[in-house]
Amino acid sequence: MAPEVTAVITTHARPAFVRDALASVQAETHKDLEIVVVDDGGTFDPPPHDRIRVMRGSNLGVARARNLGLDAARGEFIIYLDDDDVALPNRISSLLHAARQTQASLCFGMTRRVVNGATSLLQDVPTHHGSSGAAGFGDLLACAPHVNAVLVRTETLRAAGGFDVEAHHFDDWSAWLRIADREGVVWRIAETVAEWRIHSDGLSGKLFHAGAMKLRLLALFQRLRNRLSPENARAIATAQQVVASADIVTYDDYADAMSLHLVTTPPEIRAPHRSPAEFAMSND
């Protein structure tokens, strides 16, 4: 019988990290799941377990490794975890409950950022989203949810083309935006469901030290403009203008710049904040 959820952990030659990540998924309260570890060029061997499978890659890169996990997934829903991060016990159960209530294609929560062991240096992400409710394309464009805190229907992610191998560093964000563009129901919860452990050897640390955030954002938006509906392509073009005119070094710089711009964002691309009960009634 197929599991309800597939939890994919991607790793590359970091056995000490991935053991913690795997232990955190095994400690989650939701148990109807399979765990797929995508070992991209390493030699990780998990403890024997009938619910754990290992897929081997050879330096595929993070987007292709995530897509390998997507190809292998048997669950109705899929959720990801980077090898140097950890899931909180409520992660799948809280996101799945919200997705079932609202019939969402994609549901995301908050991610606590941990920098050198400290949790008070940076806001949880996505920043500027303080309440639960429906999320529109504009919400995802203004403030991206972290991959560790996103639960998505497996077939929805496949139909959207999976993770974008050409969107360097933003392969997951590109996928969420394309799902929202296809008019999938997107729901956010205010609960913190994962820890994002930021360090110099991680993707974000490397991006920061390379000073590449602004260029990568502009490249992502340029790539997406011809792949979206006309309305959302216009929103992307506006985001490009915001990025081009702002001093952006970090993710927070971008989120702050977009939050300032939102006062002039057309209301039709911003979803209303409704309770799950109100959302379900409106779709009866």
Helix content: 25-40%
What ranges have pLDDT less than 50 throughout 5 or more consecutive residues?
266-284
CATH topology name: Spore Coat Polysaccharide Biosynthesis Protein SpsA, Chain A
Mean pLDDT: 87
Top-tier CATH class: Alpha Beta
For the terminal residues, how far apart are their CA atoms?
A: 30 Å
**Number of domains as seen in the coordinates:** 1
Can you say what the CATH homologous superfamily is? Spore Coat Polysaccharide Biosynthesis Protein SpsA, Chain A
Q: How would you sum up the global shape? A: globular
Tell me which CATH architecture applies here. Answer: Alpha-Beta Complex
What is the strand content? 15-25%
Radius of gyration: 18 Å
Report the major sheet. 9 strands, mixed
Count of distinct strands: 9
Class by SSE composition: alpha/beta
Pattern of helices and strands: EHEEHEEHEEHEHHEHHHHH
- Contiguous helical run count: 11
Textual characterization of the structure:
It is a single chain. This protein is of the alpha/beta class and 284 residues long. The chain has a single domain (5-282), classed as Spore Coat Polysaccharide Biosynthesis Protein SpsA, Chain A (Alpha-Beta Complex). It contains 11 helices and 9 strands. It has helices at residues 15-26, 62-72, 91-102, 137-142, 154-159, 171-181, 203-210, 213-224, 230-245, 251-261, 276-282, and strands spanning 5-11, 33-40, 52-57, 77-82, 86-87, 106-115, 133-134, 150-153, 186-198. Strands 1, 2, 3, 4, 5, 6, 7, 8 and 9 form a 9-stranded mixed beta sheet that branches. It is globular, with a radius of gyration of 18 Å.
